[in-house]
Amino acid sequence: MDAKVTIPKPKNISLAQAATLGVGADTACLGIFNGLNVPLFNPDNPSAAKDEWALVLGGASSVGNFAVQILKAAGYKVVATCSTNSFQLLKALGADASVDYKKSQPEVISELLSITNRNLTRAYDAVAMNNELITVLYDELKDVSPKYFTTTGDLSSLSIAPHFTSHSVLGPIGRPGNDKLNSDLNSFIRIIVKLVETGKLAPSEMLEMGSGNIDDPVEAWKL
Question: Is the preceding peptide bond at 146 cis, omega within 30 degrees of 0?
């Protein structure tokens, strides 16, 4: 990994907690700032609340968790899709509303349109499974412009849609030699660290166990 993209440990969390940030927070930032066209903000000053909604598909995933929190810090109202078991977690992370992803696609889309009052301008697919859903959803929102979509997967199956801008966050992160990507990642570090230190970005839930022995990961997988 290129040294300049290494995230220093925030002062208020343990080293083990800090280890949960890394690629998850970086991927969320790449999708939000590069893909969803959200301007970089000063983490020392709260962003003004916007009368716009952002959608995080797969909000209970690691990238989804970080995306929800960073979009909230950027001033957006956030709706996420997840299982009903994760509704309380997403609410604790700042999501304004959640929709059960297990419902039929028409039901999910209907709920999203109702919750956002059709004022949905940005969508982040953190689980790379929703190209079809976003195509149908954004087709319902042709009158809303501009609209942005980011996925952690491949865009090849996304229907051609001139009425929104799409972006893929896919590939190696932090390797030496990719100067543009690494420069972008470096610009996110201050935001990530400051949001963690001010309690606006929580590290992923984790189970710390073992004493550093080589067998510890094997035992952890048995749980």
Answer: yes
Predicted pLDDT of residue 147:
95
Task: Check if the beta carbon of residue 197 is closer than 8 Å to that of residue 10.
Answer: yes
CATH of the domain at 70: 3.40.50.720
Q: Measured at the alpha carbon of residue 153, what is the angle toward residues 8 and 26, in degrees to the nearest 5? A: 10
Q: What sign for the dihedral angle of Cα 12, 14, 17, 18?
A: positive
**Whole-structure pTM value:** 0.89
Place of tokens 């209907």: 110
What residues have CB less than 8 Å from 67, skipping those under 6 apart?
28, 31, 32, 56, 59, 124, 126
Domain span at residue 169? 3-221
Q: How many of the other CB atoms lie within 10 Å of CB of 39?
A: 7
Q: What is the pLDDT of residues 29-48, one digit of tens each?
A: 999 999 999 999 999 987 88
* Token couple for 209: 């166990």
Find the DSSP H helices in the chain.
Answer: 15-18, 22-29, 62-73, 87-92, 105-116, 131-140, 179-197, 216-221
Q: Which long-range contacts (CB under 8 A, 24 or more apart) does 87-91 make?
A: 89/60, 89/65, 90/59, 90/60
Task: Tell me phi and psi for residue 56, to 5 degrees.
Answer: -115, 110
Domains contained in the chain, number: 1
